[in-house]
Batch of 4 targets.
Target 1
Amino acid sequence: MTTGIIITLCSLLLLAYVFDLTSGKTKVPSVILLLLSGFVVRQLSNLVGLKIPDLTSLLPILGTVGLILIVLEGSLELEFNKTKTPLIKKSLIVSLLPMLALAFLLTFLFHYFEQTSFRYSMVNAIPLCVISSAIAIPSVKHLQPFNKEFVIYESSFSDILGVLLFNFVALNTSFGLSSFGHFGLELIIITVVSFLATIVLAFLLNKIDHHIKFAPIILLVILIYEISKVYHLPGLIFIMLFGLFLGNLDEMKQFKWIEKLKPNELNKEVLKFKELTTEGAFLIRALFFLLFGYLMQTSEILNTDTLIWAILIVAAIFLLRALQLKISRLPLSPLLFIAPRGLITILLFLSIDPSQNIAVVNKSLIIQVIVLTAFTMMIGLLTAKTEQPDKTEEDNVAVDALPK
């Protein structure tokens, strides 16, 4: 049995690699194929009577590690300089405003139709409002540079802001001045911790001479993130700042203290670290969505009680997104369609205290919204223009996106 599981797992991960290789040409997000593969394995195992232990408890572990590696991978890719300021501002606005609008809309609907408190309604609404960087970032690697960078920034901001908003609502029984003051203090603390931890980790990355040097760094990153969660600090901010720092050492050479880190030598180590992070993110992401697909039930996917809710939520997602993109003077195609729900939605849903759950927000609704948004993204990418713009066209897109 052990041999069979290992063979199946290796085969599925190799298949996931093929999906990743071909996604640029087929425009089919690999997450859809991974979910389908996991689902098919479940049906086949039931058909042959193969008993596999309950793997549900692995889902949040894989999800957390995957989220850390994916945000780190994305932030390592980003350039951070003055020319990127307009892009960062726009991506922050587009990630925040539709999220808040959708959260309040769903909160009102849940409160009215499910007869639950405003707070509990919002706790259940927020997971459905967050763009999944785990799906969005790998799906845009073949887009033109501006759109790719925008999606990486936007989805990373969405993850961070979504977790912040979720924790704020879930952990505070009231929303007075003291709650906001405590929240502001948490942001200050995580900013200071992020700065100090980033310097220490960068120093270790440059100084460790042992042949095993990247694994301890990644383990320390995960450890800092998990400790920050214990104290309800927004650890994703640390992950993003750490990645941005390592990926933009050349932009900070004007600071004298950076020279102590020997940026020219450190850049070589960062390149190796980036390659390891990319491969690790691929493996964990593939395992997560294969497992999630395996745990899906046919009855959950085809649950008619939640299907209407799922369709309405997805319609609201893209309506609000289209409105914000228009206001921000950003191109609708293909950005409109890249708003998938996924890993972060699942993690936040699993984090809801049982006492705060409402009936309509269940596993069926989460699965249906994830599948519908992924299919919408696939259709959008398939119908978007495939030609690669030349340098002039890229510059024009970037200029058009600047604030007027």
Target 2
Amino acid sequence: MTKVVLKTSVSHGKGVFACEPITQGERILTFTGPVWNSAQADFSTYHLQIGEDLYLGPSADLDDYVNHSCQPNGGFDDGLHLVALRDILPGEEITWDYGTAIDEADFEGFPCQCGVLSCRGQVVSFRHLPGAVQERLRPWLLPYLKVKYFGG
């Protein structure tokens, strides 16, 4: 049974929201979809970078609608599972930091609209984040980034 639903997000159009309490450490959802390399990927649609040249395409499920925040309530465990970084109350939008997955040298980024006080103003590749932010995000990185930047 899922504890999240798709709803209208004031800042993002659509988003995933808790419909029941979610406890810290609890798995919220798993990212799925077809695996593409960059030659196969359609970058005009939803995609999630999962390796140097690997991407998950759209799953047509809730994972396609989890939005970014510079102060997220969700993060990746040691795979494609999004877990709660803190207790989440019903009605809260589920978010994760896109910097924990993106690592493209030529990614231009885009303006962040998360609205938190600690907003970085721009969503960029992990490699372009300040060292202190990289270190803070370290526990929630996708595995390929943990290996690339921290040896595992």
Target 3
Amino acid sequence: MSVNFESVLNFIRSKDKNINFKLNSQDDLKTEISDVISDSREVKSGTLFCCIKGEKSDGHEYAKIAENSGACAFLCEREIDSNLPQIVVKNVREFLGEVSALVYGNPSDKLLMVGVTGTNGKTTTTYITRSILQASGIRVGLLGTIIESDGIIDKDADRTTPESSIVQRQLASMVKNNCKACVMETSSHGLYFGRIKGALYDVPVFTNLYPEHLDFHVTMENYFEAKKLLFTNYTKPNFIGAVNSDDPYGKRLLDEFTKNLRGFGLKNVIKSNTTLNGTELVIHNEGFSDVILHSPLVGDFNIMNTLCAVTAMRGRVDDDAIIEGVKNVPQVPGRLERIDLPNGACVFVDFAHTPSALKSVLRVIRKLSGNDRKIISVFGHGGGRYQQNRPELAKSASEFADEIIITSDNARDEDPMKIAEAIASGATIPNKIILDRAEAVNYGLNNLKSGDILVITGKGPEKFITIKDKKIPFNDSEAVKNWRDSK
């Protein structure tokens, strides 16, 4: 797909008549634009280079590099010293997503778009939803915390919701690969900063809301308003979404968008039985027949994740696809990922990094394993994140674990020991600080007896530990498997 410079100019002027632009001749209006890129390292011929001024770098300073790499035009916030055509706006990010959508042929219009937002459960819900849609016989793209899939190739994700130009390029790739749907996590940061601008959703989904990212949003109300943007700003006409009506914020969404949203909650689970090996449940949705499901996922929160995905897909696909999709959902990396050990002990690796999520994980494992099995909980907390959660994490772990090993997470620019000490202040059971995460995991493994359970949380599928500007390779599951295979 490509459009000419004049089309981009006219589109932006339709949004803001006060913008400025620079041409060397009328022929510049015919310049063909085939890509929209804000990273000078990715520029190629036919690129509209977007100069974004961020916290650490200013894209305007890379304009000459972009031009030498094949950029054919600029979208910027101040005039560039260049003969290339350029459009000067007050805020490049404000236009980035919609301009990208224009250049890439408005790909979200050609896909069934499912957007999942909330604090906990987003990733697992997207995996279940994708599995259901695939069981209906279509190719599906996925954008989320763990992977980015264009329907053919899966690759590791850099962040939950990438820059809007990247989102549009990924959606265009899905369309090119004959995908009929995209299932996507939409983070509060991504929504707040407009990273999904240019995309509209058929099925917006809300899982729940708990205190997180309050270092950025400050209040729960601000956090909720960011999540709510998915429903107010990014939906297609006549959208039908799904929200957790057991959650007070979900109830608010349901009350506001009564005609467009289906509520789901524990009242919709007619029957359930979960063990450490899987879950059987019967789900009721108003207006549909009850459906009997068998899932390899375990835990009450995965019952809710399954209910969420099923409610979102009722009427979109037939019940056979729902049954098959739930049955065959793959193990979500780092989401209650089970690893059995030769001595009869086992390990669970999970992304839970908030007090509520950690409590949910440990509660489920305690409930399913009984009180006669020792549970050791290993976790830390990220630097630059909501500090009040640190002692609360230890309080949550203290309710269901027998022992806590406090370790480092992504400390970033904070002192790892100060983070660990803040966590320890909330512990009411035996605890030990081992800052080296590999050493902490090995210590826990070395102290497991037959039947014991080690629960490692906070990082899930992440493959690096971030300390200041360094990214140190490390993955919890790989560390466990390496220890197991060495025995």
Target 4
Amino acid sequence: MTRTYAIIGDPIDHSLSPALHNASFAFLRLDCTYIAYRIPRGDLTAAIADLKKIGIAGFNVTIPHKVDMMRLLDEIDEECRKVGATNTVVNTDGKLKGYNTDVCGFLDPIRKRNIDCTGTDVLLVGAGGAARAIIAGFANEKVRKITIANRTQQRAEEMVRFAKQLGVESEYMDLAKAGDSASSFRFIVNATSVGLKGMGCPISTRNITRDSIVYDIVYMPVETQLIQQAKEQGATIIYGWEMLLAQAMRSFEIWIGKPAPYEAMKLTLLGRF
């Protein structure tokens, strides 16, 4: 019997997850399929009940449901509890267990480069949904301090408190000043949507140096303006597609119980760009 998986969210038509997972299923000759299922805000409870009725095997969760989905879970893993959001769910006979693969997805490209984060200073640009997973990831890696630059101070202060709860020193910085201070940080991470579809750069890059590690979680385009300009300054670059691929692979492994086919997923992902 074919097992069905899905991604739920709104909007959903831009998602690359169906292509990634269906390529993996085909490569490993698994009798599985993966669909995109749009669920508007407010319809989540009823839609999850419907997914249970059809025997959905598992699903990914994206905006705007990552936090709200938590109250509909029967069980959560440690990362899920820490971040307060889920992006991967397993359905076992109607019982839903939530996982968060954003944390390990974010850290995977850093670890692949053998970068030691211990005691380092981080500039995190943005305080939206992705910021919590990034802060949790850096807390796991024992960074010294996370400075959060954001358009609105209130959202940033929420993330500052979250970082402190995880034992990491943290403070707010005005977004307009962030670029000027870039050389003070080893890591500069863009967790905003600025740069999506090639539009704009979240901060000034003139003070980014060869010692900087610039990580842009925007994955489309591959070369955002931030990455292009940071490259010209000689910085180490980490691409958004690397995080997307790593978290998708972890979701696959949670559902299927075997390693995801890295090359098949990578070729599919980069082919979409």
